[in-house]
Amino acid sequence: MIPTTPGAPPRTSSSQVAMSAVLADLFARPQFSIPQQEKDRLLLTELTDLVDHHRASCEPYRRITDGLGWSRDRVRSIEDLPYLPVSLFKTHELSSVPPADVFKVMTSSGTTGQAVSRVILDRGTADLQSRALSAVMARILGNQRLPMLIIDTKNVVRDRNTFSARGAGVLGMLPFGRRHFYALNDDMQLDVDGLREFLARYDGQPILLFGFTFMVWKYFLQAIRDLGITADLSGGILVHSGGWKKLAEEAVGNTEFKAALRDATGLARVHNFYGMVEQVGSVFLEGDDGFLYPPNFADVVIRDPATWEPAPDGTPGVVEVLSVLPHSYPGHIILTEDLGVVHGVGDASSGWSGKQLEILGRIPRSELRGCSDTHAFDGGRR
Fold first, then answer.
1. N or C: which end of the chain has fewer CB within 10 A?
2. CA atoms of 18 and 22, how far apart (whole Å)
């Protein structure tokens, strides 16, 4: 049986999250620093408490977990905890807070006429997500705000009450930079004059670049090469995510993506990340070895699609993501529509501890979300 966190204040449905001792510890320690065995123990306690919290606060979630035969006494590991399919957030609005406490509603990407996920945030959960993203990005950016080049248009953050995943991604990264420059015009063309002025102003200084993977490739890198623009980004750090499906169709993988950027611009510090609107803040960041690593407050389970049992390391399966951040909605344990494989566990002494995840792509025949694969979709899921 998993006990409630010792000394933890009770969770409530108010707009403020009661910070448990475990959650405070996960935030206090440098991200990617906790050895996996210790992390398993900490997350098991916190996630089991969250199951009970959402069962008490969200009637549909309670009915689902009742149907699954939920019993706290039978939980021995995070693999035993009940998960929800990510598609459920497209058909049901699941909330663990009263309407008066809803601070923001986030939506996933989708094509015209396609259902999108709706994620209910109270202020406390939104604050946790913001703190979490800051803690994760500090691992590669430090605490200094850098001049920031955003490979997108200004319009992507036009609605600050209801965000698409792409807009939320851009807005979430804005605090890590200063003197923000949007590299694309409204018609998705590269702002050549603006880019030259930005690079001249910060020549010789480190800069932060952010964009969704396919947009970086199609609208930024290809434009630089096609137009013969000289752009020295050797002092830059690129953080990117999403849109790998389109690149795969062009036989471009992570290695080719990095090599092309390095050859054209000198950019060598490139970090992919994996995340989704249903678990904002809990981004898996690419380490120095090319694997994606979950931060302290998140983890991953790979499930065999035939049996739904946990798959052993090295065996591909369906990706399940776990996070202790969602308090205002039951998005703490989600079965995604992605295929992945865990290759092992990183060495804490390297600064990258945790499970080594590789995302292989979408589940065949699963519903396509498009995300940042084409700019017409106002969103980006991966």
1. N
2. 11
What gap in Å lies between CA 221 and CA 261, rounded to an integer? 7
Tell how strand 333-346 and strand 317-323 pair up. Answer: antiparallel
Element (DSSP H or E) covering residue 181:
strand 177-182
Alpha-carbon torsion (46, 47, 48, 51), positive or negative: positive
pLDDT in tens, 54-103: 999 999 999 999 999 999 999 999 999 999 999 999 999 999 999 999 99
Q: pLDDT digit string (tens) for 177-211?
A: 999 999 999 889 999 999 999 999 999 899 999 99
Q: Which amino acid is at 255?
A: T
Q: What is the dihedral of CA 60, 66, 72, 78, to 10 degrees?
A: -70
Neighbouring C-beta atoms of residue 20, cutoff 10 Å: 22
Most confidently modeled of 17-26, 154-163, 177-186, 236-245? 177-186
- Asked if 7 and 21 count as a contact pair (C-beta separation under 8 A), the reply is yes
Burial grade of 37 (CB within 10 A; 0-12, 13-18, 19 or more) = exposed
Q: What is the pTM for the complete model shown?
A: 0.83
| β-bridge pairing 104-107 and 118-121 | antiparallel
How is residue 309 annotated by DSSP?
S
Instruction: Give buried/exposed letters for 94-116 (b at 16+ CB in 10 A, else e).
Output: bbbbeeebbbbebbbbbbeeeeb
- For 134-159, give the DSSP string: HHHHHHHHTTPPEEEEESS-GGGG--
The number of residues in the chain equals: 382
Kindly report the CA angle at 118 between 213 and 316, in degrees rounded to 5?
50
Residues 297 and 32: their CA atoms lie apart, in Å, by 9
Distance CA 246, CA 235 (A): 28
